[in-house]
Design a protein that fits this description.
Elements: H1 3-35, E1 39-45, E2 60-66, E3 120-125, H2 128-133, E4 141-148, E5 161-174, E6 191-196, H3 198-207, E7 211-217, E8 230-231, H4 232-237, E9 261-267, E10 270-276
Antiparallel strand pairs: 1-2, 3-6, 4-5, 4-7, 5-6, 5-8, 9-10
C-alpha cells in the first residue's frame, strides 16, 4: 500500500472521529435538556414563622421549584405583595408561601387575622376546673355545656338543668396565646376564645349568665350528636330528664246565668206577671 493511500485513510479516520464526538455531544445536550424540567422561582419562608406574625422582608426568601408551582404560590417577582400580611398558619423554613396561609391585605396580625371570614371569636370565662387543669390549647375542639336553673321555674324541687349548648367548637386562643408552646402543653387560663358563627356568638352571650363548662373532644370526631339534657332529680332517680313544663294559666269557668223566674201579682181584678233575673226575688 502506497504512502498516499495511508495518508487519506488516516485523515478520514480523524474526520470521522471528530464528527462522532460532535454528534455525541449534541445528542447528550438534547437529552439533558429534555430531562431537566422547567423551574419556577417562588417566595418561601427564610425561617420558621409563627401564627399571628406579620411578614417582613427579613422573613422571606426565594426557592426554585421544579415543574408546576403549587396552587396559590407567590412568584418571586411578587415578593413585595406579601410584606405586612399576617400569618394564619405556621410557616416553616424553606416552605413555599401559599396565599391561603396569609391574612387578607390590611388585616394585620395577631388574633384578629386568624379569624376566617364569616366567623367570630367569642370570649368565654371558664370555670375553676378548667382553669386549674389547663387542658385547653389553641386548635383543640370542645363542647360547651350550660348548667343552671331555667328562667320561669316555679317548682323549687325542679333543680338545676344541664344541657349541651354547642358541639365541635374550635378553640381559637387560650388566654392571650393564639398558639401552643414549644412542647404543646397547656397553661392555666381564665378566658378562652372560641371560633363560632354569629348565631352561636349570640347563644354564648345569653348563656354567659349561667355556668359554662368546656368538654374536650377528639379533634377527629366531628360528629354532632343529639344529646338530651339532664337535671339533678334524674341523677338519683335514673329517669330521663325532660324539659321543664312552663306553668299554664287556666281561666276559671264562667258562671252560667240563673234561669229567670216570674211571680203573678193580683191587684183587684187585675193580674200581672213580674219577672226576676236573680234569686233575690225568692227573698
Amino acid at each position: 500500500m502506497n504512502r498516499r493511500l495511508l495518508t487519506i485513510l488516516f485523515v478520514a479516520l480523524i474526520v470521522a472521529t471528530i464528527f462522532t464526538v460532535i454528534v455525541a455531544k449534541m445528542i447528550h445536550t438534547q437529552n439533558s435538556a429534555q430531562r431537566t424540567p422547567a423551574t419556577t422561582r417562588v417566595v418561601a419562608a427564610k425561617a420558621d414563622v409563627k401564627l399571628g406574625s406579620v411578614l417582613s422582608l427579613d422573613n422571606l426568601t426565594t426557592v426554585e421549584i421544579g415543574g408546576t408551582a403549587p396552587k396559590g404560590a407567590i412568584l418571586a417577582k411578587d415578593q413585595s405583595t406579601v410584606v405586612g400580611r399576617g400569618v394564619i398558619s405556621d410557616l416553616y423554613q424553606g416552605e413555599p408561601i401559599i396565599d391561603s396561609r396569609l391574612a387578607p391585605v390590611g388585616s394585620g396580625g395577631g388574633l384578629a387575622s386568624t379569624i376566617p371570614q364569616g366567623m367570630r371569636a367569642c370570649a368565654v370565662k371558664v370555670d375553676d376546673v378548667v382553669n386549674v387543669s389547663g387542658f385547653v390549647t389553641p386548635g383543640l375542639r370542645v363542647d360547651v355545656i350550660l348548667s343552671g336553673t331555667p328562667p320561669g321555674t316555679q317548682n323549687p324541687n325542679q333543680g338545676q338543668v344541664s344541657k349541651t349548648l354547642l358541639q365541635n367548637i374550635q378553640v381559637l386562643s387560650a388566654g392571650t396565646d393564639i398558639q401552643k408552646d414549644a412542647e404543646g402543653k397547656a397553661k392555666q387560663v381564665t378566658v378562652v376564645n372560641l371560633l363560632v358563627t354569629p348565631e352561636e356568638a349570640e347563644t354564648l352571650s345569653l348563656a354567659s349568665s349561667f355556668s359554662i363548662r368546656l368538654v374536650l373532644r377528639n379533634p377527629l370526631d366531628t360528629k354532632v350528636a343529639p344529646v338530651a339534657g339532664t337535671d339533678t332529680n334524674s341523677l338519683f332517680t335514673g329517669a330521663v330528664a325532660t324539659a321543664p313544663v312552663k306553668p299554664q294559666h287556666v281561666a276559671a269557668p264562667r258562671a252560667s246565668a240563673p234561669e229567670p223566674f216570674s211571680i203573678e201579682v193580683l191587684n183587684g181584678n187585675k193580674s200581672t206577671q213580674e219577672k226576676f233575673a236573680t234569686s233575690e226575688g225568692h227573698k
